[in-house]
Description:
Blueprint: H1 2-15, H2 27-41, H3 47-69, H4 76-89, H5 95-108, H6 111-122, H7 130-159, H8 161-183, H9 189-220, H10 223-231, H11 241-257, H12 267-298
Helix pairs in contact: 1-4, 2-3, 2-8, 3-8, 3-9, 4-8, 5-6, 5-12, 6-7, 7-8, 7-9, 7-11, 7-12, 8-9, 9-10, 9-11, 9-12, 10-11, 11-12
Amino acid sequence: MNLIALLIGLVVERLATQLFHWRRMRWLDRIIDSGFDQARRLANWPPLLLIILLAIFLVLPVFGVIILLGGTLREFTYLLLAIVVLFFSLGPHDIGEDVDDYCEALESENEEDIVRAAKAIVEGDVPTESLQRIQCVEESVCVQANNRLFAVIFWFMLLGPLAAWAYRVTDLIRRRAVFNAARSEADDADAERIRDAAESLHGWLAWIPARLTAVGYATAGHFDEAIAALRAPTEQTGLSLSEQNEKLLARVGVAALALQQDPDESMTARGARGAVAANRLVFRLLLIWAVIISAMTLYGLTR
Length: 303
């Protein structure tokens, strides 16, 4: 049943682009900010515990629906619930749509549009130098594919819709905590503590999917280059678990692309080629995951 729900959910995710604004769930920002305010008041409590409690609070509505449905949650009812939860757990943006917008911005050669489209993929500030920005976008496509897609699929297939939504909740909390810390004053220790706790919780849930995705990039792309990057020494110490996950995905994903430099190629063409190649790598890996999950379902290894 989970396989059917996953396949339908992925089709809806690809086709229902006009509904994407629903799953941005901006209204949750106020609830998350209220949770952060409570964490500031309870400064003596471990921030990670408070972030976990906030995540549980946001997961409770979906858990309540599951409990409310009770014995009726079978076959069609479960399928419908799984599709709805999966739709809101994926994203909030589609990688392919963001890449298309970025390529259109590159063709327009409008610097403001390029920066805006690049920020949508990177989900943060981007370098001002063209080549560095291009490389940053390629890395971010590989990173965001795990955050928006593969980690959700992993938890959905492992533990069901509730786990997929729980992962998305931790990602929403992390995004909001990072945003608040970036716009707060430099000496705002509370904002930094909350951000670090949110990134830690998200990093734990993303740790296994990130490594499965990194191995998948090697399978879907240039194997030798990706495996070499996978075996490369770990990143510098002092990084959070979430940052380690992102560094790994970026390093292996870009290596799997194995893009060759063309001295006669313009920055516009180079940027579009790299972004499209990264998006195709993600799509190939998605197909590989679909085949593997189908085989596991066929042999009764998953539901």
